[in-house]
From TrEMBL:
A Gene Ontology BP annotation from the UniProt entry: sodium ion transport
A matching Pfam family: SSF
Organism, scientific name: Anopheles quadriannulatus (Mosquito)
GO MF annotations in UniProt: symporter activity
Keyword Ion transport: yes
Name this polypeptide is given: Sodium/solute symporter
GO CC, any one term: plasma membrane
Membrane topology designation: Multi-pass membrane protein
NCBIfam families found in the cross-reference section: sss
Length: 607
């Protein structure tokens, strides 16, 4: 075990490994060049640049969703979570089935019935411009806080196996991502995601198969994992302060991932870029299946790592500084002698990071342009000027991510940090969309006060929890690991050399700061309802007589008065036989037609 590691020390990244990694970056760059310069139908309009003309194919969009949502954080930190805390986190995989159902039957119909391209435009239509501006601001702030982490993690893996300066590689790879995202728009992002998604699957599969084979087979892996208490997935403890239980992994992640997947602009932008709602739903179900497969592989990788080092923890003996670096260490140990395999693994981690970064850069540029630049009319707004402006925004945002790597390097447990940062606003976003789509009587006052209260309260809870963690008042000690077998590999250590870590036992009353970070999004969502519904009631509930039913999810149309449903204008599909394109054209009133064109950025007056 350790002998094989010392025989293949850090920094021995072979020529073949560099070649594999370079080919992956070269393919991504080539796709950007193709869609930026050589495709017959160039990105002449804003809709083409951001939505691919709403003609994207179902399968590529599904693969793009998989690749962009399973970031480098997932590839690196989920195995670390399994190694340190056991298999409880895997429950998120089957939970994705329920998450997909919620998105498909609550959110997607509303987005398509209202022709939403910017998901936050729904909040203006449903409530008011003030509500939209507030939630958009929280989204932009959240993305700028979390995006540097997504791309820094792959650089961390590369540095672990090659010895190259982490900030140098971070800058180079970020530069490639900025390049192809700027040039090719959504089409380049989606098709690079397809390539990178396939690399992710192949890499995860090969690492698991080779690892299991070298340990001695699947039965040996499971036997060692069971002996180390790493296979428990049905911990039904109702204690909200426990880091991971069945309830946190299912219910907690249900709220977190529903908001992250179904209500973030980077995902909605892909969902609405296919021709119809049925295509969108099919793409989401394909995503669901792919997510379950890759997440299961990813989780099992952590179990395999534990089985490999079950009697000599590389963290305790100083071979690895922290759990988030275990996976590249494991790869270098197990497959480092196979030329090119470490390169395949690094390509996998970078593929995940690049997919997430490019997806967010593309959607972030469109959102900032539409909401913060275009309204000020600083210059003549044409499709050409809009595309140029968004490319500049992508460049600036990418440079910011490179610079922020200096700060991200100081973070502790990456998965916990990502969830914590996202949860400051994720609950508010989830809550306000659900309030708007599921509670017809909610008004703009309830929405604004509910979302603002959620952000304020969650910021207070999370800040208090972080202070408590820094003061050692809150900790999540990992499950025990062994060093009993280390003497066989030249390490003269015993279990007595490492004090047993235990969570602080506080005999005082329950503190809100002690709840598991996985519950943050759930708490934030319920705060929106607890504040939003009473405020709406006391400030005059939404007048349903002047209400557009299509702004409410079809699942709750039964709550609306019959006369409101009957008065709702109908969207009529043109005869498809007369329309050679696979996109439905819709019939609007004059006012609706004008609003629709303005929303899509089709500025006919300037053409």
């Amino acid at each position: 075990m350790v002998k094989s590691i010392t025989a293949n020390p850090q920094g021995q990244f072979s020529v073949e490994d560099y070649a594999v990694f370079t080919i992956m970056l070269g393919i991504s760059t080539a796709i950007g060049v193709y869609f930026g310069f050589f495709q017959k139908k160039k990105n002449q309009t804003t809709e083409e640049y951001l939505l691919g003309g709403r003609k994207m194919k179902t399968f590529p969009i599904a693969i793009s969703l998989i690749a962009s949502q399973l970031s480098g954080v997932s590839i690196m930190s989920v195995p670390a979570e399994m190694y340190s805390y056991g298999a409880q986190y895997w429950i998120i995989a089957p939970t994705m089935i329920l998450i997909t159902m919620i998105i498909n039957y609550i959110f997607v119909p509303v987005f398509y019935n209202n022709h939403i391209t910017n998901c936050y435009q729904y909040l203006e239509d449903r409530f008011s411009p003030a509500v939209k501006k507030f939630v958009t601001f929280t989204y932009v702030l959240n993305i700028y806080l979390i995006l540097p982490i997504f791309i820094f993690i792959p650089a961390l893996a590369f540095s672990q196996v090659s010895g190259i300066n982490i900030h140098l590689i971070n800058g180079i790879v970020c530069g490639v991502c900025i390049f192809y995202t700027m040039l090719g728009g959504i089409k380049a992002v989606v098709w690079t995601d397809v390539v990178q998604g396939l690399i992710m699957f192949v890499s995860c599969f090969l690492v698991v198969v080779i690892g299991v084979a070298k340990i001695g087979g699947l039965s040996e892996v499971l036997e060692r994992a069971a002996a180390g208490n790493r296979l428990e997935i049905f911990d039904m403890t109702l204690d909200a302060t426990t880091r991971q239980t069945f309830w946190t992994a299912s219910v907690g992640n249900l709220f977190l991932w529903t908001g992250y997947l179904g209500l973030s602009q980077s995902c909605v932008q892909r969902i609405v870029s296919v021709p119809s709602m049925s295509h969108a739903r099919a793409a989401l179900w394909i995503f669901c299946a792919g997510f379950i497969v890759i997440m299961t592989l990813n989780c099992f990788t952590g179990i395999v790592i534990f089985a490999k080092y079950f009697d000599c923890d590389p963290i305790k003996v100083g071979l690895v500084q922290k759990a988030d670096k275990l996976l590249p260490f494991f790869v270098q140990d197990v497959v480092g002698n196979l030329k090119g395999m470490p390169g395949v693994f690094i390509s996998c981690v970078f593929s995940a990071g690049l997919s997430t970064m490019s997806a967010n850069l593309n959607s972030l540029a469109g959102l900032i342009y539409e909401d913060y630049i275009r309204p000020f009319k600083l210059f003549k707004h044409t499709d050409a000027s809009a595309n140029t402006t968004m490319k500049v925004l992508i460049l600036v945002s990418g440079v910011y991510c490179i610079a922020m790597g200096l700060i991200v390097e100081q973070f502790g447990h990456i998965l916990q940090m990502v969830v914590t940062i996202a949860s400051v606003t994720q609950g508010a976003v989830m809550g306000i969309f659900c309030l708007g789509m599921l509670w017809p009587w909610a008004n703009k006052h309830g929405a604004l006060w509910g979302s603002a209260s959620s952000v304020i309260v969650m910021s207070w809870i999370i800040a208090g929890a972080q202070i408590a963690i820094s003061n050692k008042e809150i900790s999540y000690p990992p499950k025990p690991t062994s060093v009993d077998g280390c003497y066989e590999y030249g390490y003269n250590v015993t279990a007595n050399d490492f004090p047993t870590l235990e969570a602080p036992q506080d005999e005082a009353e329950f503190s809100i700061y002690n709840i598991s970070f996985v519950w943050y999004s759930t708490v934030g969502t319920f705060i929106v309802f607890l504040v939003g519904i009473p405020v709406s009631y006391f400030t005059g509930s939404q007048d349903l007589r002047n209400f557009r039913p299509k702004l409410i999810s079809p699942l709750v149309h039964w709550l609306l008065p019959e006369e409101v449903l009957q008065n709702d204008f109908s969207l009529k599909a043109e005869n498809e036989k007369l329309n050679p394109e696979p996109i439905k054209e819709w019939t609007f009133t004059a006012h609706e037609e004008e609003k629709y064109k303005e929303r899509l950025g089709v500025i006919e007056q300037t053409l």
